[in-house]
């Protein structure tokens, strides 16, 4: 059997990829001066870290309730603001509603840009602009939600049934009337579902956002890590984990009912 | 009165939808349009409310040019023309009431439309037209819970609510069973007779066209090849209209 009769007939491509990856690894090790030896010599610290981490200090829990509620409030407010803003933008990003491909493309381009900004970078920028605190968290979450849901919404506008649009055009309705009377009823339940989905994402993200100073539970995480209080870190992580799981489950069951 | 004056339609891709059509439809007429699939029936019907822009000639509604109407005039003309189609064109997730009310979007300001601020009189009219089509009990029912026949009656109610003087129906019974088809056409006929509305129907069933119409138009490849009373629509004419392909049975119904 010759090699070109087997699934490995393109072996040289595989070889090329392996060599390339090897080169990348090597040059990045050189560039960052990574020392794998440290991994072994510092094993004692890892041990200390894991010991503390595995003994969560549950007495700390009551003091976390308040920041967690703040995180949830931030997420909820940010989500609602983001979705409210996303709806008109999503409508303007579909030719169905604007009837103008140029306008549509301009809006889509804008939405694409918004979506490419990473969450943490956005938070860091806004901390610099607005300052440390919950307001920054809310704005970050609103912008992030705006990016995610605007795309989901305009995609669902594109999959609606177009027949009712003809009906509204035929009775002499303009585009805004058509959007409200023929398009919105077809996407309303999806929009609500996306809102819950975004809320899920945001609760998860806002835990991390606090870490860069955008308020909420993340601030506590940052504090505990900075003070090497790993027994607190683990309580915080557990708490976040539980809340995220609860939010996910509740939101998912609501979304399932919306279908 | 609707007047077609040497109307032609060439689609952007070069297909000739209509070629040199001249005809006049009088107020209160019940007119059927027959012809093979692709003959141009929908093109003709949809040019009456300019969902289709014609490329030659002129269409006049009560002596006013539809072709030269500007955006605002067009919207005003469209308010007086109701459209019913094979797929009902309802927002299925909305209630019967909302679908009917949407018939007057052309009359209300954008602000009032967006916030659904309809007048008391119009809510009353909505109930009245639903009573006419025997759907009073379905006011708050979502349209996706209705049968095909009921959905089509909602779209008829919408044109009545719209207070349209002309009703265009593009194959209104093509997706309905024979009994329901009769019901829907009875309804249209009743509206035509009692309210004096002009009704123009595209239809595939020759038997139904003959049974309900005052006048029948036949199209073939975008040309008007027959224009006359149901009695004048003889088997010979049908053979010609359907290019000898008509599967004519004893009742003279073609399943083209
Ligand atoms: N939007 C369109 N673009 C190009 N050609 C079209 C379009 N709509 C219809 N046509 C063509 O015009 C002709 C007439 O179509 P139509 O009016 O829909 O016929 P009918 O309703 O009698 O079946 C057909 O050849 C069809 O393919
Ligand atoms: Mg057709």
Explain what this protein looks like in three dimensions:
The complex is a heterodimer of chains A (259) and B (256). Chain A has 259 residues and is mainly alpha-helical. Chain A contains twelve helices and no strands. The longest helix of chain A has 35 residues. Chain A starts with 10 loop residues before the first helix and ends with a helix. The mean pLDDT of chain A is 89. By secondary structure, chain B is an alpha/beta fold. Chain B has a domain of 125 residues: Rossmann fold (3-Layer(aba) Sandwich). In chain B, the strands form two sheets. Chain B has a six-stranded mixed β-sheet, with helices on both faces. Magnesium ion binds next to helix 1 of chain B. The site of adenosine-5'-diphosphate has 12 residues of chain B, from helix 1.
Blueprint (SSEs and pairs):
The complex is a heterodimer of chains A (259) and B (256).
Chain A (H helix, E strand, L loop, with lengths): L10 H22 L4 H5 L1 H11 L8 H31 L2 H4 L2 H16 L2 H12 L3 H25 L4 H8 L4 H35 L7 H10 L3 H29 L1
Chain B lengths: L1 E9 L5 E10 L4 E5 L6 H7 L8 E6 L2 E2 L5 H9 L1 E5 L10 H6 L8 H5 L5 H13 L15 H14 L4 E5 L7 H18 L2 E5 L3 H7 L2 E6 L2 E6 L6 H7 L15
Parallel strand pairs in B: 3-8, 3-9, 6-7, 7-8
Antiparallel strand pairs in B: 1-2, 1-4, 4-5, 9-10
The structure holds adenosine-5'-diphosphate and magnesium ion.
The site of adenosine-5'-diphosphate has 12 residues of chain B, from helix 1.
